[in-house]
Description:
Order of helices and strands: EEEEEEEEHEHEEEHHEEEEEHHEE
Number of strands: 19
CATH topology: Metallo-beta-lactamase, Chain A
Strand content: 25-35%
Structural class: alpha+beta
Radius of gyration: 17 Å
Helix content: 10-25%
Number of domains: 1
Number of helices: 6
Amino acid sequence: MLINHQNLPAHVQIFPLSEGSFTIDKTKIFVPFNTQTDQLQQRPIGSLLVEVQPFVIVTPTDVILIDTGLGFGYEGTLQIHHNLQQIGIDPASVTKVLMSHLHKDHAGAVGKMDKLGNYHLAFSNAVYYVQKKEFAYANEVGFPSYMVEELGVLENHPQVVWLDGDGVIDGWIQYEITGGHSPFHQVFWLHVANQILFFGGDDAPQLQQMKSKFVAKYDFDGKKCMELRQEWWKKGNDLDWTFLFYHDIAAPIYPLV
Length: 257
C-alpha cells in the first residue's frame, strides 16, 4: 500500500510493510491472528492484538527503512524483502535503517542467515543507526525480548553507526532517546520537504493510544509513555505532523488522505 499525505510532495512516498496481525501475551510469542475469523476472547487472558509493520520512506536521496520487523521467512526469503519487492523496491537499494529499539518484533530482520549459519546484514548497502546503550541492554537482558544471537551481526560492523543520546542524522533526521517503552528506546522526526514525519515506535504504537491517557503495564515507564503521547499528539496536530504507527491495524499512517 502506497500512501501519499496531502501535504507531501509527489516524490516522497511512504509504504507500510505489513507483516500481519498477531496476538501476544506474557510468553512474548507472536501468534498469527486472522481479523476476519479469529476471536480475541479465545486467546489467553491479557493477549494484545497488534499489527507488525515496518515503514519504508522513499525520497529523492534515500530509501529509508524504519525498524525491520519480525524476521519471518516467506517462500525462501525474508518476509520484509518480499514485501519490499512487491512494491518494486530492491532490498539492496535501502540506504538507511533506523532502529527505534531492538525488541525481536522490531529487529527480527536486522540480519539474515546464510547456508552456513552465519549472519549478514539483511540490507547489505544500508547504514544502520542504533543506540549503543540499547544494544548493550539487549545483550544484558536477552531472550525472550531480544534475539541476542541475531543481533550480534551489528557488533563491530562498519555499516553500523552507534548513536549515543540525541542528535540529527544528515541534517534532517532527528532522533531522541525517550526511555519510555524500553530504557534506551528512541523516536524519529524526518523533516522532508517542509513536512515532519514522526515515528514513535512502541512509545506511540497505535492511533487510539494517542487520544487517551492509557498507561501500559508492558512499558518500562508507562506513565512517561502516556505523557509523551499526549505531548506529541498536541504538537503534531498543531504542526501537521504525519504519524507512523508500527502496531496499528486500522490506521498505520495518520492523517490519511
